[in-house]
């Protein structure tokens, strides 16, 4: 082979290799070419033929051509052989980095409803271009500029500046005052720790005394009422009286038409009248007995000046919705005092009169809501004394009581506080 032939052969081989490389790099296949799909976008932002097509991030083909259509821009996609794209997949345009090469990304649907066939047309989602981002950023900057200008207009006012300065100073003063208050409360709690301990001890002693008083009152009521037997016997006696009177009335009525003797007839009529009166009185007594309600209460009070306890107990008997009677003993122990009062109940006030602390007197109870009640007693005509009580309900049947006795006598005035329990 001469020199010219060798040069020609080498040149031809180089051209063949170059052509093979170009075909390989361009993705052109001379065998199975897969199947084409057309994706239509509103804009493609620099997409061009040869760009990669990815399915869920995996390269599956390339863009064969980009053409302008009346409804937008069509990108002809050539998928690799064996790749099947589910129907309903989302087609979007992305880029590798901010200024990188564009590519088409296919995202599969959540539910599989078949596959696209060759030459199907799909509509892709328009990408968010850099120009649109710049326009949005300009709008945001314009709004921020307006906001800054408004703030400058507000803060430039001398009155607003003075108000802000005064607010800052007031906040600093409030903080300092709160610090001083906290320090004062801590010091007060530390200095009065002994008083708090003593108060807790007094409350414990008061509760023990209250329990003891309640036991004694319960025993007294049990002895008097005989566990309810007394009231039961009373009702049975009145019922028997009513029944007997009714029978006598019926017997007299039966004899009234038979007896002809005038004197006997007169006696029968008198018997009838007496029987009717007895029956009416028995019915009246039964009604009163059924309306009777009793409430027992005990209390223990404490005087912090004299370190003295005082226990009291009473029974309030309501004979009707408006009438009641109070029977009790105050200052149980060495100086027990009797309370025996009759009263009338009203919507806002209760009136009482009778014996108060073993002396004749009157009293008024003011109902201040459902939980608060105040009482004023004036007694002892020979040496008038005034007592004021306040009680507040903290639980069903349980009250906190404050009492000041002998308010009109400065040297003898005493104050108590404690607990009252009703049963």
Automatic annotation (TrEMBL):
Keywords for the protein's UniProt record, in alphabetical order: Coiled coil
**What positions does the domain Mce/MlaD occupy?**
33-109
The coiled-coil regions, if any, are 231-288
The record, for InterPro entries, names: Mce/MlaD, MlaD_Phospholipid_Transporter
Which Pfam families would you find in this protein's record? MlaD
Q: Which domain of life is it from?
A: Bacteria
Q: Which PANTHER family match?
A: INTERMEMBRANE PHOSPHOLIPID TRANSPORT SYSTEM BINDING PROTEIN MLAD, INTERMEMBRANE PHOSPHOLIPID TRANSPORT SYSTEM BINDING PROTEIN MLAD-RELATED
Listed name of the protein: Phospholipid/cholesterol/gamma-HCH transport system substrate-binding protein
Organism, by scientific name, is Sporomusa malonica
């Amino acid at each position: 082979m001469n020199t010219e032939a060798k040069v020609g052969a080498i040149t031809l081989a180089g051209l063949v290799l170059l052509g093979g490389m170009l075909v390989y790099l361009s993705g052109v296949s001379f065998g199975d070419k897969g199947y084409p799909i057309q994706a239509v976008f509103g804009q493609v932002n620099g997409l061009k033929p040869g760009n990669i097509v990815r399915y869920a991030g995996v390269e599956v083909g390339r863009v064969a051509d980009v053409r302008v259509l009346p409804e937008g821009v069509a990108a002809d996609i050539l998928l690799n052989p064996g790749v099947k794209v589910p129907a309903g997949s989302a087609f979007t345009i992305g880029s590798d980095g901010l200024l990188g090469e564009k590519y088409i990304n296919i995202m599969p649907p959540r539910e599989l409803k078949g596959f696209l066939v060759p030459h199907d047309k799909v509509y892709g989602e328009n990408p968010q271009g850099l120009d649109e981002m710049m326009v949005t950023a300009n709008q945001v900057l314009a709004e921020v500029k307006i906001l800054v200008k408004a703030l400058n207009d507000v803060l430039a006012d001398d009155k607003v500046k003075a108000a802000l300065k005064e607010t800052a100073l007031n906040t600093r003063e409030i903080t300092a005052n709160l610090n001083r208050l906290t320090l004062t409360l801590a010091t007060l709690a530390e200095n009065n720790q002994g008083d708090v301990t003593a108060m807790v001890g007094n409350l414990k002693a008061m509760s023990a005394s209250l329990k003891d008083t309640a036991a004694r009152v319960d025993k007294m009521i049990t002895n008097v009422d005989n566990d309810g037997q007394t009231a039961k016997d009373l009702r049975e006696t009145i019922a028997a009286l009513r029944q007997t009177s009714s029978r006598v009335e019926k017997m007299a009525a039966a004899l009234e038409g038979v007896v002809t003797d005038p004197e006997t007839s007169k006696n029968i009529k008198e018997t009838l009248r007496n029987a009717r009166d007895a029956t009416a009185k028995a019915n009246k007594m039964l009604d009163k007995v059924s309306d009777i309600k009793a409430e027992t209460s005990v209390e223990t009070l404490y005087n912090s000046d004299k370190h003295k306890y005082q226990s009291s107990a009473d029974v309030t008997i309501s004979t009707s919705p408006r009438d009641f009677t109070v029977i009790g003993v105050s200052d149980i122990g060495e100086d027990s005092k009797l309370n025996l009062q009759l009263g009338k109940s009203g919507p806002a006030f209760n009136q009482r009169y009778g014996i108060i602390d073993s002396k004749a007197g009157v009293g008024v109870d003011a109902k201040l809501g459902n939980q608060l009640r105040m009482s004023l007693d004036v007694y002892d005509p020979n040496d008038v004394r005034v007592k004021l009580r306040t009680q507040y309900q903290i639980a069903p049947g349980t009250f906190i009581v404050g009492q000041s006795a002998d308010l009109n006598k400065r040297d003898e005035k005493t104050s108590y506080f404690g607990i009252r329990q009703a049963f």
